[in-house]
Amino acid sequence: MPSVNPIPEGYASVSVSLIVSDVERALEFYRKALGAMPSECLWSIDGKSILHGEMRLGDSRVMLSPENPDWGTKSPATLGGSPVSMHVYLPDADAAFRRAIDAGCEVAYPMEDAFWGDRYGKVKDPFGHSWGLATRREALTLAEIETRGHAWMRKMAPAT
After folding, report:
1. What pairing do the DSSP bridges indicate for beta strands 16-20 and 60-66?
2. Which of 115, 125, 134, 140 has the fewest CB atoms within 10 Å, counting from its CB?
3. 36-39: Cβ within 8 A, 24+ apart
4. What is the pLDDT of residues 81-96, one digit of tens each?
5. Entry pTM
6. In this structure, what is the dihedral angle of CA atoms 18, 23, 26, 32, given to the nearest 10 degrees?
7. Are 29 and 126 a contacting pair, CB within 8 Å?
8. Which helix (H) or strand (E) covers residue 96, if one does?
9. Tens digit of pLDDT for each residue in 25-61?
10. Which of 9, 16, 156 is nearest to 86 (CA)?
11. Would you say 64 and 17 are in contact if contact means Cβ atoms under 8 Å apart?
12. Who's near 100: CB < 8 A, 6+ residues apart?
């Protein structure tokens, strides 16, 4: 029996899998909004819907599955939100942010030069998932990030 790599080619040790209301529509949306490239799809027996889809986003693979109450899988739309956010590094976060908004994402956090050294903003897609879009601008030490972070938190704190 030939040996099999325990981590399939093209996958990382940890892969994101999103639950969405319509995999086919989501794959097309993420292509437009984030520049993702749809790859593999496993269609239902009747050929009317995708049971499992995958897309490449930069050097990462993201899996998508449909909601299915029988499997206990619910999308953020059904749950009323999600505690999970994807963080994507891109060569030009500002351009990606504009493209995502133009495609139908909502601004969850406007683009800014973040205290940790990234150009960063966050969008919420029509399927209820949040995407942090970032471009690294500065290489900072943990101490520098902490100092800047504390200053940012003091600035953001409500006046008393």
Report:
1. parallel
2. 140
3. 36/62
4. 988 899 999 999 999 9
5. 0.85
6. 120
7. yes
8. helix 93-103
9. 999 999 999 999 999 899 989 989 999 999 999 999 9
10. 16
11. yes
12. 33, 34, 123, 125, 131, 133
